[in-house]
Protein backbone atom coordinates (compact mmCIF):
# COMPACT_ATOMS: atom_id res chain seq x y z
CA UNK A 1 0.00 0.00 0.00
CA UNK A 2 1.46 3.42 -0.92
CA UNK A 3 0.12 5.11 2.24
CA UNK A 4 3.00 5.72 4.64
CA UNK A 5 2.30 5.11 8.31
CA UNK A 6 4.21 7.99 9.93
CA UNK A 7 3.90 6.33 13.34
CA UNK A 8 5.90 3.34 12.01
CA UNK A 9 8.72 5.48 10.55
CA UNK A 10 11.87 5.62 12.62
CA UNK A 11 12.61 9.06 14.04
CA UNK A 12 16.08 10.31 13.16
CA UNK A 13 17.68 12.60 15.72
CA UNK A 14 20.96 14.43 15.61
CA UNK A 15 22.96 15.04 12.48
CA UNK A 16 25.91 13.76 10.49
CA UNK A 17 27.89 16.90 11.32
CA UNK A 18 31.28 16.56 12.98
CA UNK A 19 31.96 18.11 16.40
CA UNK A 20 31.32 20.78 17.48
CA UNK A 21 28.49 21.30 14.96
CA UNK A 22 26.60 18.07 15.75
CA UNK A 23 25.72 19.35 19.24
CA UNK A 24 24.08 22.42 17.70
CA UNK A 25 21.32 20.22 16.22
CA UNK A 26 19.74 19.34 19.59
CA UNK A 27 15.95 19.47 19.38
CA UNK A 28 15.83 18.47 15.70
CA UNK A 29 14.13 15.28 14.57
CA UNK A 30 13.06 14.00 11.19
CA UNK A 31 10.96 11.30 9.62
CA UNK A 32 12.43 9.89 6.38
CA UNK A 33 9.10 9.61 4.59
CA UNK A 34 10.53 9.14 1.11
CA UNK A 35 12.75 6.30 2.29
CA UNK A 36 9.79 4.67 4.04
CA UNK A 37 7.90 4.81 0.73
CA UNK A 38 10.80 3.35 -1.25
CA UNK A 39 11.58 6.55 -3.19
CA UNK A 40 15.03 6.73 -4.78
CA UNK A 41 15.00 9.81 -7.03
CA UNK A 42 14.20 12.39 -4.37
CA UNK A 43 14.01 12.62 -0.61
CA UNK A 44 10.98 13.71 1.39
CA UNK A 45 11.47 14.36 5.09
CA UNK A 46 9.28 15.78 7.82
CA UNK A 47 11.59 17.86 10.02
CA UNK A 48 10.38 18.65 13.53
CA UNK A 49 11.96 21.41 15.58
CA UNK A 50 11.57 21.90 19.31
CA UNK A 51 11.47 25.50 20.54
CA UNK A 52 14.91 27.02 20.01
CA UNK A 53 16.11 24.26 17.65
CA UNK A 54 17.54 24.71 14.17
CA UNK A 55 17.25 22.48 11.13
CA UNK A 56 20.88 22.58 10.03
CA UNK A 57 23.82 24.86 9.62
CA UNK A 58 23.13 27.51 6.98
CA UNK A 59 24.04 25.81 3.70
CA UNK A 60 23.48 25.57 -0.04
CA UNK A 61 23.72 22.67 -2.52
CA UNK A 62 25.68 22.59 -5.76
CA UNK A 63 23.52 20.00 -7.57
CA UNK A 64 20.38 19.43 -5.51
CA UNK A 65 17.13 21.38 -5.54
CA UNK A 66 15.27 21.79 -2.22
CA UNK A 67 11.63 22.64 -1.59
CA UNK A 68 10.22 23.34 1.89
CA UNK A 69 6.66 23.77 3.17
CA UNK A 70 5.88 24.55 6.79
CA UNK A 71 3.27 22.12 8.12
CA UNK A 72 2.97 23.03 11.82
CA UNK A 73 3.87 25.94 14.05
CA UNK A 74 6.14 28.77 13.04
CA UNK A 75 9.63 28.53 11.55
CA UNK A 76 12.02 31.33 10.76
CA UNK A 77 13.89 30.92 7.49
CA UNK A 78 17.29 32.55 7.73
CA UNK A 79 19.04 33.10 4.42
CA UNK A 80 21.41 35.60 2.83
CA UNK A 81 18.65 38.23 2.71
CA UNK A 82 17.67 38.00 6.38
CA UNK A 83 15.06 36.33 8.61
CA UNK A 84 11.61 35.42 7.27
CA UNK A 85 8.81 34.04 9.48
CA UNK A 86 6.97 31.13 7.85
CA UNK A 87 3.70 29.56 8.98
CA UNK A 88 1.71 26.48 7.86
CA UNK A 89 1.29 26.48 4.11
CA UNK A 90 4.19 28.87 3.46
CA UNK A 91 6.74 27.49 1.00
CA UNK A 92 10.32 28.19 -0.03
CA UNK A 93 12.48 26.86 -2.85
CA UNK A 94 16.25 26.64 -3.14
CA UNK A 95 17.50 25.87 -6.68
CA UNK A 96 20.68 23.88 -7.12
CA UNK A 97 23.78 26.02 -7.48
CA UNK A 98 22.28 29.15 -5.91
CA UNK A 99 24.71 30.11 -3.11
CA UNK A 100 21.94 31.49 -0.88
CA UNK A 101 22.82 29.79 2.41
CA UNK A 102 19.70 28.89 4.36
CA UNK A 103 18.33 27.08 7.39
CA UNK A 104 15.27 27.11 9.62
CA UNK A 105 15.09 28.04 13.31
CA UNK A 106 12.16 27.62 15.65
CA UNK A 107 12.13 30.93 17.52
CA UNK A 108 8.69 30.25 18.99
CA UNK A 109 7.74 28.58 22.27
CA UNK A 110 5.87 25.71 20.55
CA UNK A 111 6.99 22.80 18.34
CA UNK A 112 7.22 23.42 14.60
CA UNK A 113 7.56 21.18 11.55
CA UNK A 114 8.19 21.41 7.83
CA UNK A 115 8.28 19.06 4.87
CA UNK A 116 11.47 19.19 2.84
CA UNK A 117 11.72 17.60 -0.59
CA UNK A 118 15.04 17.43 -2.39
CA UNK A 119 16.62 15.76 -5.35
CA UNK A 120 19.22 13.08 -4.71
CA UNK A 121 22.43 13.62 -6.62
CA UNK A 122 25.44 11.35 -6.33
CA UNK A 123 27.91 12.83 -5.76
CA UNK A 124 26.69 16.07 -4.17
CA UNK A 125 28.50 18.89 -2.42
CA UNK A 126 27.09 21.40 0.08
CA UNK A 127 28.79 24.49 1.44
CA UNK A 128 28.07 25.90 4.90
CA UNK A 129 27.78 29.67 4.77
CA UNK A 130 28.76 30.70 8.29
CA UNK A 131 31.51 28.19 9.11
CA UNK A 132 34.62 26.89 7.33
CA UNK A 133 33.03 23.61 6.29
CA UNK A 134 31.84 21.72 3.21
CA UNK A 135 30.50 18.20 2.78
CA UNK A 136 30.65 15.85 -0.16
CA UNK A 137 28.11 13.05 -0.20
CA UNK A 138 29.10 10.10 -2.38
CA UNK A 139 27.55 6.63 -2.31
CA UNK A 140 25.99 7.36 1.08
CA UNK A 141 29.22 8.53 2.73
CA UNK A 142 29.78 12.08 3.98
CA UNK A 143 33.26 13.59 3.75
CA UNK A 144 33.75 16.93 5.50
CA UNK A 145 36.48 19.36 4.47
CA UNK A 146 37.43 22.97 5.02
CA UNK A 147 36.38 25.34 2.23
CA UNK A 148 39.93 25.24 0.85
CA UNK A 149 39.63 21.45 0.45
CA UNK A 150 41.83 20.41 3.37
CA UNK A 151 40.45 17.66 5.64
CA UNK A 152 38.22 18.87 8.47
CA UNK A 153 39.62 18.55 11.95
CA UNK A 154 37.79 19.68 15.08
CA UNK A 155 39.97 22.52 16.40
CA UNK A 156 37.58 23.44 19.22
CA UNK A 157 39.11 21.03 21.74
Describe the structure.
- The chain has 157 residues and is mainly beta.
- It has one helix at 33-36; strands at residues 11-13, 28-32, 42-49, 59-61, 66-72, 75-79, 82-86, 91-94, 103-105, 112-119, 124-128, 133-138, 141-145.
- It has a six-stranded antiparallel beta sheet.
- The mean pLDDT is 95.
Question: What's the layout of helices and strands?
Answer:
Layout lengths: L10 E3 L14 E5 H4 L5 E8 L9 E3 L4 E7 L2 E5 L2 E5 L4 E4 L8 E3 L6 E8 L4 E5 L4 E6 L2 E5 L12
Antiparallel strand pairs: 1-2, 2-3, 3-10, 4-11, 5-8, 5-10, 6-7, 6-9, 11-12, 12-13
Keywords:
single chain; 157 residues; mainly beta; 3% helix
**3D shape:** globular
* Count of discrete alpha- or pi-helical segments spanning 4 or more residues: 1
Q: Round the Cα radius of gyration to an integer and report it.
A: 15 Å
The largest sheet has its strands arranged as: 1-2-3-10-5-8
Outline the biggest β-sheet.
Answer: 6 strands, antiparallel
What percentage of the residues does DSSP assign to strands (E)?
A: 35-45%
Count of individual beta strands:
13
Terminal Cα separation, in Å?
A: 49 Å
Helix content: under 10%
| Average predicted local confidence, pLDDT | 95
H and E string? EEHEEEEEEEEEEE
Structural class: mainly beta
Low-confidence stretches: none
Amino acid sequence: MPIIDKTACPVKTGSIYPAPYAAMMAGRQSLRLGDAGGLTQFGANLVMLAPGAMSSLRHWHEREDEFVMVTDGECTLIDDTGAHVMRPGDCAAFPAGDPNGHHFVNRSDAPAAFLVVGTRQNPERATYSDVDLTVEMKDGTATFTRKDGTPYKDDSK
